[in-house]
């Protein structure tokens, strides 16, 4: 699996200064933590999961979360487990027979409802577990942490040495996390549960939809999750507890719920990047991007990145390319990060950036630089004259947008 592997060699040369590297579910944990990226949720009751993966239906799909929890009805649990087994059996058979190359599989996760269901699912799917990258732990709390973690630890302790590790991705989305009077104690308690086993924790995920529900609020397509004050404050505390560089946790951005847009407010997406790429036609493309992808989603991803969050839960395939495009490292970021790391020799403290628009301080910016280099390995680095719009235009998208 490799990001943007659908590009032609000519397009890769045009767009990328450094190409993304390949990975699979056996790659090292740091790379996989960054690689989860745009994680597409799909109900476990969906009958075409395996067929869609084989056919490459969703261009750019790199990670998928098969949902046994909120995406299915409470009376569909047994059906969903049976469907999950069927889909994994089909994928496994295709891999064995060479119909599907193992390295073409997206990173697959299962969101279960409870530790009890995780135990059931592990027994149900048997050796097919080796197709998975991990499990998603919903409504993760101090009270259920040990049960989830012990199942994860037991699997990894007893698995075949040749089998890939199985990771956990807890979702913080309960009242104890969002309510101010219990938040810090709860977050610190959860972190104490996770710290001894952090090598098995791929992402910390934020359940902003559940948080919003507790207050009867919901962001509109014109707003970002950071415009909801009570949710923003909670995200800030989650970052404060889990985002410290010495702990090594990767935090993922919350879900964006919209896939069509009825705009109320004036869009904030600048015209310049589109005009630079396409001239006058770029204005029309910009409006197509705004209508299809939503200005709000672009702003929210930008704010996720500024706050140190990597990746995003998505519920619609049209979000895949956009989220991924915005995670690619720019040439300017890469040159700054590379310069900072190369000059960390003890003989220099500060220097002017190659772009001559900022000062780079080696010690204060070192942690940032290391994260940029880690992200660049997974998502690649754009050429100096390229930006995220270039990846939206490629492979006939320009024509498709302009004809709509």
TrEMBL record:
Gene3D superfamilies: Phosphoenolpyruvate-binding domains. Pfam families: C-C_Bond_Lyase (PF15617). It comes from the Bacteria. Keywords: Lyase, Magnesium, Metal-binding. Its cofactor is Mg(2+). GO terms for molecular function: lyase activity. This is HpcH/HpaI aldolase/citrate lyase family protein. PANTHER family: CITRATE LYASE SUBUNIT BETA (PTHR32308:SF10), LYASE BETA SUBUNIT, PUTATIVE (AFU_ORTHOLOGUE AFUA_4G13030)-RELATED (PTHR32308). InterPro entries: C-C_Bond_Lyase-like (IPR039480), Pyrv/PenolPyrv_kinase-like_dom (IPR015813), Pyrv_kinase-like_dom_sf (IPR040442).
